[in-house]
Design goal:
alpha+beta, Calcium-transporting ATPase, cytoplasmic transduction domain A, Rossmann fold, Calcium-transporting ATPase, cytoplasmic domain N, 5 domains, nine-stranded mixed beta sheet, nine-stranded antiparallel beta sheet, 40 helices, about 45% helix, elongated, Phospholipid-transporting ATPase
Length: about 1150
C-alpha cells in the first residue's frame, strides 16, 4: 500500500529494502514502478544495493519504460535541469512566446486576415514576420536550454561499479564511491577505506569553498567495509525532511535495538567530490530533486532592465495609439459611406454582409487595425535579444578583461542586463577577496603584551632552526624567533594553540578551510610547532623537533554567530586544556577578570594592527579539570543527541565551557589589495558612481582599507561613525550626521572638493537598528549624502538588506560584487550581480550575472561595455520606432484620400519585407557595433557615463521625439509625391498620377530616407555596417524589379499583376526629383536640429557623438556633417577633445 501525504514531516529510510521504502510518497514519486525480477542479484562489488540490472531478454522493455518515464519526468536520481525535451519543446516554447503581448496580438491579426470581409492584405504579410520571429526565438531558447543543461548531464549521469547509472539510484540503496568521483545523491557515510571511517571531500560545487573537508562515518558502521556485511545491513534512518540547509543534518540511525545520532559530519552531499580516499560506501538518504544541492537551486529571481519595463509601457501606448487611429478612420468611413458612398450604390454596392454604413465602419476599423499593425514592432523583442547576445559575446571576447594569472576570462552569464551596466549608480562591494587578494600572510602578533613583526628588519631564515619550515613564509622580527628558542612558555603556548586549534588536514601539504587558517598553521610550523596529522581522536604535531600526540576530546566548531573556534585536548601528561581563537569582540569578553591589564595592552595592539589594515584574531586557553570535563562531556553528549533544538543546546554547551579563559595574545594577517583597485575606485567615483563596502571585518580594518583603496581620502571633511547600541542612540547619530552633511553641502555649494564619509558598525543586533523599518529613511538619506560608505561587522543577510534599502528608496540601478558564498544574497538582491572567481570558490560566480577574475575589470565592464550597450540599445530603439511610424503612418494619411476603404499605399510584398529584409539588418548592425567614442576615451573621460545614470538617451521624452520625427517623415513621404505626381506627366504626355507609380515612388523614397537616417545615426562604421546599409538598399531595388518582372508574371499571373510598373516609374526624371526633394525635406531639419543642439546646448553624450563624428565621418555622413556643422564647430570640438 502506498502512503500519500501533503507534506513530508520526517523521512524514514531502510537500507536494502526497496519494498519498504516504496510505501512512502518520496520513493514512489521518484521512479515509476518497473517490474524487477527477484532472481536478479547484485554484483560482488555492490552487494546489498537492490539495483535492477537488465538482461538481454528484457532490454527492450527497459528502454520503453525509460522513454516513457523521461516523458513523464518521473525519475529517481535523475535531475532534469532542462526546460524542454523533444516532445514538449514545441508546445511549451510556443506557449511561453505567446505570453508576450505583441506575439498574441499578431496571432490575433492573422486570424482577422483570414476573414475576407475585413482584410485587404494577404495572410502572409503577417504570418511571414511572425513565423520568423517565433523561429529565431525558439532556436535561441533551445540553444540556451541545451547549453545550460549540458553541465548537469555531464556530472549527473555517472556509472556505478555495476554499470548502473546514477539516475537509477533510489532511496535506501547502498552504493560505492571511488576516489575523484562525484557524489550524486545525499549519502549517509557507512564506511571508508581510510582508518576510523574518515573520508575527504571537496565541496567547491556545493558551497564554493575549494578546500577539502573531512567526513566520518558513525563508529558502529565504520567496520562494514566487507561486502557481505553491507549486504546484510538493515539499519533504518529517521531524519529531517528534504531542506536547503547545507551545514545542518539531524537524524537518528536505528540498528540492532540501538540508536545513534547523525549529524552533517556523517553526510556526503550531492555535488561534492571524493578526494584522497580510495573508496567509501554510503546509504542514499535523499535522491534527485530532494538533495540539498537541488533544494538550493530554487528559481532565480528574473531580473529586468529599466529599458525593458519602459518598452512594455511604450508598446501598450502604441496599442492605444493604433486603436485611436482605427477609430478615427472608422468614423471617417462611416461619414464617407453615409454622405458620399451612398451615391454609388447603384453600380458599387456594399459587399455582403454589409448592409449599412455603421457596419461598414465596424469592418473598416478592423481592416485598419490590420493595415496599421506595423506600428506595433513585431520584431522588436527578438531584435533586442539578438543585440544583447552580441554585447554578451563582446564581453566574453574582451582580451583586456582576461586574467592570465588564473587563466580566466570575463563571462556574461546573462544576456538580459547588458544595457543596465551603463546605468549603475551604486556599487556594493565585499572587501576580502574582492578588493583584496584573499591570500593571507602572517604579518604581526601580540604575545603576553609584547608585539612582534617589525617590517623594517631583515627577513628571517628559518632553515637552520627548523628543517620542516616553509620556504615561502616571510617574517621580519628575529626577537620572536629568539623567544621561541629560549623556551618562553607564553610563546610556546601561543604557537601550540595555532598548531592544534584548526581544521587543517594532510600533514605538510596543508588543506585549510580558509586562507586565514592556513596562514596561521604555516606560521606555527615555521616557529617550530608543526602540525603533522590528525585522526578522529588525535592530533599529532612536532614541537621543537619532538613528536607529540594529543588526544582530541572535542571540537567546538566555528560559525558566523559564534565567531570563534575551540578544541579540547589531553596532552601526553594527561592535562586537559581548551584552546580558543576568534574575533576579539567575542573572545575578550569571555576572559578571566585577572586578564584585565593584559587585555588592555593587547587591545591597543589589535587597534594598531587594524589601523594597518590587518585581519586580527585573539587567542586564549583554559585548563579543564577531570571532574569539569566529565560533567561537561555528559551535557555535551546529551545536547548532541537531542532531536529538538539540537543546535541551540550545543551552542549553550559551548558557551558554558568557553568562559574564564586566559589570554595568550593576538595574530595579525595581511591581505593585500588587488592590482588596480585604487585606480578603479577613483575612476568609478569620477563617473558619479557611489561605492559602498560591506564587510564583516572590524571597524579599524575596514576604515584602513578604505584609505588604502582611495575610497576615503585625507581631504574628507569628516568621517562619521554610527556605532550606537540602542535605537535612540543610532537615530541621534544618523540625524547629527545628516545635519552635518547638509551643513557642508550648504557651505560648499557646488564645490567639487566636498567629500564626506560614513562608517556603520553593526556587529550585534543592537547595532543593526539603522536597518530597521522605522529608521531606514534616515539611514538612507544620511548615507546617500556621503561620498563613500563602509559598513563593517555585517552579516550576509544585512548585506542584502542594505542593497534592498537603496533599491527601495533611491530607485537607482545597483550592482553588487563579491567572491564568496557569504556574498550570494547580496549579489542576488542587486539589479546586477558580479562574481569574482577568486580564492573562495565559485559560489558567488554561480549566483552572478557577470564574472571575471579581478576587481579592476569592473571599470571596463561598466565604462566601456556598459556604456556602449546602453548607447547602442537607445539608438536602436529610437531608430526602430522612428522607421516603423514613418512607414505605417503613410497608410493613415492615404485613408483620407481613398474613401477610408482600407486600401494600402504599398503593395503587400513590400509590407511583408520592409521590417524583415529592407530595414532589419542595418539597425541590428548599429545596435551591435555602434560607438560614440573609442574605449580609451570612455576610460579617460568617466563623465561620459552620466547620461546613462540620468537616463537621457532613451526615455518617454525621447520616444515622443522619435514618434514625432516618424510622423513628420510620413507626412513628407505622402504629401510631397502626392502633390508632385498629381499634375506630372511622362515625356510622352501620359499622366503619372496612377496608383502604382505613387506606390513605387513613396516606397522608394521611404527606403532611401530611412537608409540615410541610419547612416546619420551610426557613429562607428564597420565593414558590416556598410554591407548591411547599402546592401539592404540594393536588395530593395533588386527585389522590387524582380517582383515587377515578366518572369514572375508568367509563373504566377494571379499574384503579380503590375508587370514593368517599377521599371517604367523609375525611368522618369520627375520621380527621382520627387524622391530627392522628399529626402531633403526629411533629412535637412534633422541635421539642422543636431547642429544647433551640439553648438548651443552640448552635453557629454552629444559632444562625444560630435567629437567622434568629426574624427570618423565617412561617405554620406561626412558630406552632410561638413555642410551643416562647418569648420568652426569641428575645430571647437577637436580642441575640446584633443
Amino acid at each position: 500500500m502506498t502512503h500519500f501525504v501533503s507534506a513530508e514531516e520526517e523521512r524514514r529510510v531502510r537500507a536494502n529494502d526497496r519494498e519498504y521504502n516504496e510505501k512512502f510518497q518520496y520513493a514512489v514519486r521518484q521512479f515509476p514502478s518497473l517490474p524487477v525480477p527477484k532472481s536478479h542479484s547484485l554484483s560482488l562489488k555492490v552487494r546489498g544495493c537492490s539495483i535492477f540490472k537488465p538482461t538481454n531478454g528484457n532490454i527492450v522493455k527497459v528502454f520503453i519504460c525509460f522513454f516513457f518515464f523521461c516523458l513523464l519526468l518521473i525519475q529517481s536520481n535523475c535531475i532534469m535541469t532542462s526546460k524542454y525535451n523533444i516532445v514538449t519543446f514545441l508546445p511549451v516554447n510556443l506557449f511561453e512566446q505567446f505570453q508576450e503581448v505583441a506575439n498574441t496580438y499578431f496571432l490575433f491579426l492573422l486570424i482577422l486576415q483570414l476573414i475576407p470581409q475585413i482584410s485587404s492584405l494577404s495572410w502572409f504579410t503577417t504570418i511571414v514576420p511572425l513565423a520568423l520571429v517565433l523561429s529565431i526565438t525558439a532556436v535561441k531558447d533551445a540553444t540556451d536550454d541545451y547549453v545550460s543543461s549540458f553541465f548537469f548531464l555531464r556530472n549527473t549521469y555517472l556509472i556505478l561499479l555495476q554499470n548502473e547509472k546514477w539516475m537509477n539510484v533510489r532511496v535506501g540503496d547502498i552504493i560505492k564511491l571511488e576516489n575523484n568521483q562525484f557524489v550524486a545523491a545525499d549519502l549517509l557515510l557507512l564506511s571508508s577505506s581510510e582508518p576510523h571511517g574518515l573520508c575527504y571531500i571537496e565541496t567547491a560545487e556545493l558551497d564554493g569553498e575549494t578546500n577539502m573537508k573531512v567526513r566520518q562515518s558513525v563508529s558502529v558502521t565504520s567496520e562494514l567495509g566487507d561486502q557481505n556485511n553491507l549486504a546484510s545491513f538493515d539499519g533504518e534512518v529517521v531524519c529531517e525532511p528534504p531542506n536547503n540547509k547545507l551545514d545542518r543534518f539531524c537524524g537518528t540511525l536505528y540498528w540492532r535495538d540501538k540508536k545513534y545520532n547523525l549529524t552533517n559530519q556523517n553526510m556526503l552531499l550531492r555535488g561534492c567530490v571524493l578526494r584522497n580516499t580510495e573508496a567509501c560506501y554510503g546509504l542514499v538518504i535523499f535522491a534527485g530533486p530532494d538533495t540539498k544541492l537541488m533544494q538550493n537551486s530554487g528559481r532565480t529571481k528574473f531580473k529586468r532592465t529599466s529599458i525593458d519595463r519602459l518598452m512594455n509601457t511604450l508598446v501598450l501606448w502604441i496599442f492605444g495609439f493604433l486603436v485611436c487611429m482605427g477609430v478615427i478612420l472608422a468614423v471617417g468611413n462611416a461619414v464617407w459611406e453615409r454622405e458620399v458612398g451612398s451615391l454609388f450604390q447603384s453600380y458599387l454596392p456594399w459587399d455582403p454582409p454589409v448592409d449599412n454604413f455603421l457596419f461598414s465602419a465596424f469592418l473598416s476599423f478592423w481592416s485598419y487595425v490590420i493595415i496599421l499593425n506595423t506600428v506595433v514592432p513585431i520584431s522588436l523583442y527578438v531584435s533586442v535579444e539578438v543585440i544583447r547576445l552580441g554585447h554578451s559575446y563582446f564581453i566574453n571576447w574582451d582580451q583586456q578583461m582576461f586574467c592570465s594569472q588564473c587563466n580566466t576570462a570575463a563571462e556574461a552569464r546573462t544576456t538580459t542586463l547588458n544595457e543596465e551596466l551603463g546605468q549603475v549608480e551604486y556599487i556594493f562591494s565585499d572587501k576580502t577577496g574582492t578588493l583584496t587578494q584573499n591570500i593571507m600572510s602572517f604579518n604581526k602578533c601580540s604575545i603576553n603584551g609584547q608585539t612582534y613583526g617589525d617590517r623594517h628588519l631583515s627577513r628571517l631564515d628559518f632553515t637552520p632552526f627548523n628543517p620542516l619550515a616553509d620556504q615561502d613564509f616571510c617574517f621580519y622580527d628575529d626577537t620572536l624567533l629568539e623567544s621561541v628558542k629560549v623556551g618562553d612558555s607564553h610563546t610556546h603556548e601561543f604557537f601550540r594553540l595555532l598548531s592544534l586549534c584548526h581544521t587543517v588536514m594532510r600533514e605538510l601539504v596543508y588543506k585549510a578551510q580558509s586562507p586565514d587558517e592556513g596562514a596561521l598553521v604555516t606560521a606555527a610550523r615555521n616557529f617550530g610547532f608543526v602540525f603533522r596529522s590528525r585522526t578522529p581522536g588525535t592530533i599529532t604535531t612536532t614541537e621543537m623537533g619532538r613528536p607529540v600526540t594529543y588526544i582530541l576530546l572535542a571540537i567546538l566548531d566555528f560559525n558566523n554567530i559564534r565567531k570563534r573556534m575551540s578544541v579540547i585536548v589531553r596532552n601526553p601528561e594527561g592535562r586537559i586544556r581548551l584552546y580558543c581563537k576568534g574575533a576579539d569582540t567575542v573572545l575578550l569578553e569571555r576572559l578571566h577578570p585577572c586578564n584585565q591589564e593584559l587585555m588592555n595592552i593587547t587591545s591597543d595592539h589589535l587597534n594598531e594592527y587594524a589601523a594597518d589594515g590587518l585581519r586580527t584574531l585573539a587567542l586564549a586557553y583554559r585548563d579543564v579539570s577531570e571532574d569539569e570535563w566529565e560533567t561537561w562531556s555528559e551535557s555535551h553528549r546529551c545536547a548532541d543527541k537531542a532531536t529538538n533544538c539540537r543546535d541551540d543546546r550545543l551552542a549553550a554547551a559551548y558557551e558554558e565551557i568557553e568562559q574564564d579563559m586566559m589570554l595568550l595574545g593576538a595574530t595579525a594577517i595581511e591581505d593585500k589589495l588587488q592590482e588596480g583597485v585604487p585606480e578603479t575606485i577613483a575612476v568609478l567615483s569620477l563617473a558619479n558612481i557611489k561605492i559602498w563596502v560591506l564587510t564583516g571585518d572590524k571597524q579599524e580594518t575596514a576604515v584602513n582599507i578604505g584609505y588604502s583603496c582611495k575610497m576615503l581620502t585625507d581631504d574628507m571633511t569628516e568621517v562619521f561613525i554610527i556605532s550606537g547600541h540602542t535605537v535612540q542612540s543610532v537615530r541621534q547619530e544618523l540625524r547629527s550626521g545628516h545635519r552635518s552633511g547638509q551643513l557642508h553641502v550648504r557651505l560648499s555649494g557646488v564645490s567639487v572638493s566636498l567629500h564626506l564619509g560614513i562608517h556603520t558598525d553593526k556587529e550585534h543586533s543592537g547595532q543593526a537598528h539603522a536597518l530597521e523599518a522605522d529608521m531606514e529613511t534616515e539611514f538612507v538619506s544620511t548615507a546617500c549624502a556621503c561620498k563613500a560608505v563602509i559598513c563593517c561587522r555585517v552579516t550576509p543577510l544585512q548585506k542584502a538588506q542594505v542593497v534592498e534599502l537603496i533599491k527601495k528608496h533611491k530607485k537607482a540601478v545597483t550592482l553588487a560584487i563579491g567572491d564568496g558564498a557569504n556574498d550570494v544574497s547580496m549579489i542576488k538582491s542587486a539589479h546586477i550581480g558580479v562574481g569574482i572567481s577568486g580564492q573562495e570558490g565559485i559560489q558567488a560566480v554561480l549566483a552572478s550575472d557577470y564574472s571575471f577574475a579581478q576587481f579592476r575589470f569592473l571599470q571596463r565592464l561598466l565604462l566601456v561595455h556598459g556604456r556602449w550597450s546602453y548607447l547602442r540599445m537607445c539608438r536602436f530603439l529610437c531608430y526602430f520606432f522612428y522607421k516603423n511610424f514613418a512607414f505605417t503612418m503613410v497608410h493613415f494619411w492615404f485613408g483620407f484620400f481613398c474613401g477610408f476603404s482600407a486600401q494600402t499605399v504599398y503593395d503587400q510584398y513590400f509590407i511583408t519585407l520592409y521590417n524583415i529584409v529592407y530595414t532589419s539588418l542595418p539597425v541590428l548592425a548599429m545596435g551591435i557595433f555602434d560607438q560614440d567614442v573609442p574605449d580609451k576615451r570612455s576610460l579617460e573621460y568617466p563623465k561620459l557615463y552620466e547620461p546613462g545614470q540620468l537616463n537621457l538617451l532613451f526615455n518617454k521624452r525621447e520616444f515622443f521625439i522619435c514618434i514625432a520625427q516618424g510622423i513628420y517623415t510620413s507626412v513628407v513621404l505622402f504629401f510631397v509625391p502626392f502633390a508632385v505626381l498629381s499634375d506630372a506627366t511622362q515625356s510622352t504626355g501620359v499622366p503619372l498620377a496612377d496608383y502604382q507609380t505613387f506606390a513605387v515612388t513613396t516606397a522608394t523614397a521611404l527606403v532611401i530616407v530611412v537608409s540615410v537616417q541610419i547612416a546619420l545615426d551610426t557613429g562607428f562604421w564597420t565593414v558590416i555596417n556598410h554591407v548591411f546599409v547599402w546592401g539592404s538598399l540594393g536588395s530593395y531595388f533588386t527585389i522590387m524589379f524582380a517582383l515587377h518582372s515578366q518572369t514572375l508574371f508568367r509563373i504566377f499571373p494571379n499574384q503579380f499583376h503590375f508587370v514593368g510598373s517599377a521599371q517604367s516609374t523609375l525611368l522618369q526624371p520627375v520621380v527621382w526629383l520627387t524622391i530627392a526633394l522628399a529626402t531633403a525635406i526629411c533629412i535637412v531639419p534633422v541635421l539642422a536640429f543636431r547642429f544647433l543642439k551640439v553648438d548651443l546646448k552640448p552635453h557629454a553624450s552629444l559632444t562625444s557623438w560630435a567629437s567622434n563624428s568629426s574624427r570618423c565621418q565617412r561617405g554620406v555622413k561626412k558630406f552632410f556633417f561638413d555642410i551643416f556643422v562647418g569648420l568652426r564647430v569641428s575645430l571647437q570640438i577637436k580642441l575640446m577633445w584633443g
